[in-house]
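re: ur question from earlier - yeah i can do the single chain one, its not a big deal. heres the input i used so u can compare w yours
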Amino acid sequence: MTAVIKLVFCLRRRADLSREEFQRYWSDHHAPLVRGYSEVLQLRRYVQVHTLPEGASAALGGSRGVEEDEYDGVAELWWESLEELTAAATTSEGRHAGAELLEDERRFIDLARSPIFLAEEHVVVG
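and the output i got, formated as tokens:
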């Protein structure tokens, strides 16, 4: 199986939004924007992972000494290769899409507290 390149974005909501408001905006407004740009960005897949209500993961985190400030969700964007991601991001259409998505992210994500990174997926089970 070929490796998949992922952008992983661990999201924390803006302080003025409840978790429910954040997740609703993310799925009802931001997701359609990403879907609309999926061809331009050459996305293979886009997944939103919505965390359960606050406290639902507290025992898991506590057993590992994890920080108490929970994430509100995780976004995963997949590409076939790093070259494909780079090619899509360097076109004028790709840059426009990236700028519009970032502008929208500022409406609901606390960007300074939301780690983002590129990674290579290695399937172990499944």
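The radius of gyration is 16 Å. not sure if urs matches, ping me
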